[in-house]
Amino acid sequence: MTLTFEDFSVGHLGRFGPRHVTREDIIAFASEFDPQPMHLDEEAAKHSMLKGLSGSGWHLGSLMMRMLYDGLLCRTASLGSGGVDELRWLSPLRPGDDLTLDIDVKQVRASRSRPDMGILTLGLTVRNAAGTVLLEATSSIMVSRRQSADEARRDR
Amino acid sequence: MPFFEDLSVGARRELGSFTFTAENIKAFARQFDPQPFHLDEEAGRRSLFGGLAASGWHIGSVCMKLLVAASKREAEAALAAGKTPAAWGPSPGFRELRWIKPVLAGDTITFSSVIETLRTSESRPEWGIVQARNSGINQRGEQVFSMLATGFLQRRVAP
Predict the structure, then answer these.
(1) Is B159 an interface residue toward A (CB < 8 Å)?
(2) Contacts of A144 in chain B (CB under 8 A)
(3) Residue range A89-111, pLDDT digits in tens
(4) Which segments within chain A are labelled E, that is strand?
């Protein structure tokens, strides 16, 4: 059963994960997108502000996206996102971390320009196994209304 | 990279360009954002995006890649001129990230960064705090991506 806009209301939607992150994952992402010494090399990372090998903030954001997909969007008539109002990197991502994602629906509103969809504002919190918050973000996603999702399925 | 004291509000850095291909769009999406419109051309055409579209997190990560490469070039230029390059510290976050238009397979996005605010850090006097608007435009000159990023940059002389 695919979730549509009508299925959502303000409140805590759930906690998802855990997702395990290895040293190899951190180095592979950093090598491609963020090749700074603090994300690539233990020795150099010791002397950085974060004091030890840490994952790129964009890696952590991308992992949050994956957990958002696995936890919610894979069963939602999602139409994409217009952006991220705010994202804060609060603690570093470390090798061996087991991440969880808490999703809170902060606002539910109809689209003025598109009656076939609505917009959900989500509060997203990523924690490690110790419960330390690594990332907090507020982002909006566009979701089909039931009637339009049914029509799209029929047209296919 | 110059030091914090060398920067001024309004200064613009050209970060370079990146071409999003069906291959690199799908490779990123398989790992981090496997929604159908990021993985499959036909699903992309039927979506609001109108074609196979890059994940927004892919676009942001590519902007980071180009920022790191630009900083490396600037550090090398400083060393070549006999100067000490300044280092960037970790970023506390960003605001107002907008995926303004879809980035589709075949699009080449050119990124730039313009400084909006400069302030010193009370808790970390050896660092300055830089806010910059990073943005991307496609090959037709349309803005597709924008964000207000915050970063720490070393000060030349700590007070």
Answers:
(1) no
(2) none
(3) 999 999 999 999 999 999 999 98
(4) 11-20, 78-89, 98-110, 117-127, 133-144
A132 touches chain B (CB under 8 A): no
Contact (Cβ atoms closer than 8 angstroms) between residue A48 and residue A123: no
Residue B105 maps to a domain: yes
| A58–B64 C-beta distance less than 8 A | yes
Using one digit for the tens of pLDDT, what is the confidence trace for B143-158? 999 999 999 999 987 5
Domain housing B99: 4-154
Cβ of B35 within 8 Å of Cβ of A38? The answer is no
* Averaged pLDDT, A129-137: 98
Note the pLDDT tens digit of each residue in B84-118. Answer: 888 888 899 999 999 999 999 999 999 999 999 99
Ramachandran sector of residue A100 (left: φ over 0; alpha: ψ -120 to 50; beta: rest): beta
Question: Token digits for B57?
Answer: 């997190």
Distances (CA, A) of B3 to B75, B94, B124, B126, B157: 10, 21, 15, 11, 9
CATH of the domain at B134: 3.10.129.10
Q: What percent of chain B has pLDDT over 90?
A: 82
Burial zone of B122 (CB within 10 Å; 0-12 exposed, 13-18 middle, 19+ buried): exposed
Domain annotation covers residue B159:
no
B141 within domain boundaries:
yes
* Prediction pTM value: 0.95
Give chain B's domain count: 1
**Closest alpha carbon within chain B to A36:** B68
Identify the structural domains of chain A with CATH numbers, from first to last: 5-155 (3.10.129.10)
